[in-house]
Design goal:
With about 500 residues, this protein is α/β, with parallel strands linked by helices. The protein has three domains: about 300 residues, 3-Layer(aba) Sandwich (Rossmann fold); about 110 residues, Four Helix Bundle (Hemerythrin (Met), subunit A); about 50 residues. It is built from 15 helices and 16 strands. The longest helix has 27 residues. The protein binds adenosine monophosphate and zinc ion.
Length: about 500
């Protein structure tokens, strides 16, 4: 079954069906939805605010797949821009351009490695491609060439090339800014600037001492561009087109990407191709600390490793970051994180209980009696509500509420011996299905348990035999062997019981 969802589109400022009706993915299910996600600027370790954006994007992909679609996600790595250059040459030494390229590579490499490590520990699935800006300079040069040809780009008196925002009539539509006449013609060469500073922005910056540089004539002999380097915004336009095509289904980032980055991407891309760049724009809200956006510049940030060092489970961080609706701001606190850890443990314990009771508890007399089947109803209801919540602007908070309600109802019924074994199986399957979207690695909990169950039963039978033969040393050795695997064995008047306690 394939179901479109209703997803908020920043450009039209309304909920719209996704994938959009004109997406090729709607006509042929084997055609993937094309999705570009602005990735990290690898000048430092990413902070958990950045990871709120990446986890949200991972959720978009996972939810679409759960609803039956296929997705091709591309996430770029910004490895050349003002920040990475500053990091590689903080004192602005007059290093030759070629040497600077080497320095830049050496400076960004450990940050790229750390980014992938963090991505994996948060169980963010890998995108199909992670293009690097430094590997797409020819595409950028050609794109700027098309802008020059179409009359959108001009050379400034500093020798750099700029995009003329007044030439692009839709400039400002995404962010809603109005360009006052006074700002027209004024230029900004920095990669990042505020809305109040909206101006013609740099496409290609002329080489300066101490910066890496490329010769555009190597890629396009007729290019009028000087030796230099790209502006940040053109990087994403070029990489998106190269890996996903001139028009794509969705593009996303955090709220701060709307202006100027995405506004500029639209202007450059549509100015060059004359085609719509992105059908649907999606942006997530900020992770805050004490009510303020978590950001490197404010210094109020936690890197993932800072939080892990305090002993927290990365999957609890994942659960915390995804459990508030993606468009709402989320205030980060360690109290909140503890709450997420508790919720994660609750889901794990529920799954373990299902597995344990399914494999060890015989169908009791009650399970043949009246009033059975209630658990099945609760499970189906949770499945319906979960899928519905995803289609309502990716309402993971509501989807989670449906899961916890199922957990509560089935747990109570388990206490009363009112759950059929096939319902226990259904409940585990449902939970593992939900986890395709949540990504909390619940399958690992269950697998550990599932393998143990058969093994534990054999071992317990062996132990019973040893006890009968009064070989207590052997019986104790088996108990210790199981304890090492996290299996606790208890001899009760009703017989031997065991549970998994890792
Ligand atoms: P940057 O490396 O600064 O380009 O940021 C990478 C991604 O993280 C972008 O999509 C940003 O919009 C996003 N981002 C940065 N800070 C936050 C935050 N506090 N909350 C949510 N997303 C953020
Ligand atoms: Zn970008």
């Amino acid at each position: 079954m394939v179901t479109p969802l209703r997803l908020y589109d920043t450009y039209s400022r309304q909920l719209r069906e996704f994938p959009p009706s004109d997406s090729p993915a709607r006509k042929n299910l084997e055609t993937p939805i094309t999705y570009y996600t602005c990735g990290p600027t690898v000048y430092d370790y990413a902070h958990i605010g950045n990871f709120r954006a990446y986890i949200f994007e991972d959720q978009v992909v996972r939810a679409l797949e759960y609803l039956g679609w296929t997705v091709k996600q591309v996430m770029n790595l910004t490895d050349v821009d003002d920040k990475t250059i500053h990091g590689a040459n903080p004192k602005g030494e007059s290093v030759p351009a070629v040497e600077m390229l080497g320095r830049l590579g050496a400076y960004t490499a450990p940050h790229i490695e750390a980014f992938f490590e963090d991505t994996d520990s948060l169980n963010i699935r890998r995108a199909a491609v992670y293009p690097r800006a430094t590997e797409h300079i020819p595409e950028m040069v050609r794109l700027i060439g098309a802008l020059i040809e179409n009359g959108y780009a001009y050379e400034g008196d500093d020798g750099s090339w700029y995009f003329s925002i007044k030439k692009f009539s839709r400039y400002g539509y995404l962010s809603g800014i109005k360009i006052e006449d006074v700002r027209l013609g004024a230029r900004v060469s920095a990669d990042e600037y505020e809305k109040e500073d909206a101006r013609d922005f740099a496409l290609w910056k002329k080489a300066r001492p101490g910066e890496p540089a490329w010769d555009p004539k190597e890629f396009d002999s007729g290019s009028p561009l000087p030796v230099g380097r790209p502006g940040w915004h053109i990087e994403c336009s070029a990489m998106s087109m190269k890996h996903l095509g001139e028009t794509i289904d969705a593009h996303s980032g955090g709220h701060d990407n709307i202006f100027p980055h995405h506004e500029n991407e639209i202007a450059q891309s549509e100015g060059a191709t004359g085609k719509r760049f992105v059908r649907h724009w999606i942006h997530c809200g900020y992770l805050l600390v004490d009510g303020e956006k978590m950001s490197k510049s404010k210094g109020n940030y936690f890197r993932l490793r800072d939080v892990l060092q305090r002993g927290y489970n990365p999957l609890a961080i994942r659960l915390l970051l995804l459990s508030t609706h993606y468009r709402k701001p989320l205030n980060f606190t360690f109290e909140g994180l503890k709450g997420a850890e508790k919720n994660l443990k609750q889901l794990q314990a529920f799954l373990r209980r299902l597995e344990r009771e399914r494999t060890t508890v015989a169908e009791g007399p009650k399970s043949l009696g009246i009033g059975m089947g209630g658990a099945g109803v609760a499970i189906n209801q949770a499945k319906d509500e979960f899928a519905k919540a995803l289609t309502e602007d990716l309402n993971i908070a509501k989807a989670l509420a449906a899961i916890f309600e199922m957990t509560r109802v089935v747990n109570t019924m388990l206490d009363d011996g009112m759950v059929l074994q096939e319902e226990m199986e259904q409940a585990s399957e449902a939970l593992l299905g939900f986890d395709h979207v949540l990504g909390l690695k619940l399958d690992e909990v269950r697998e550990g348990e599932g393998v143990d169950a058969a093994f534990v039963e054999t071992k317990l039978a062996e132990r019973a035999k040893a006890k009968k033969a009064k070989d207590y040393a052997r019986a104790d050795a088996i108990r210790d062997e199981l304890a090492a695997l996290g299996v606790i064995v208890e001899d009760t008047p009703q017989g031997t019981k065991w549970f998994y306690a890792k």
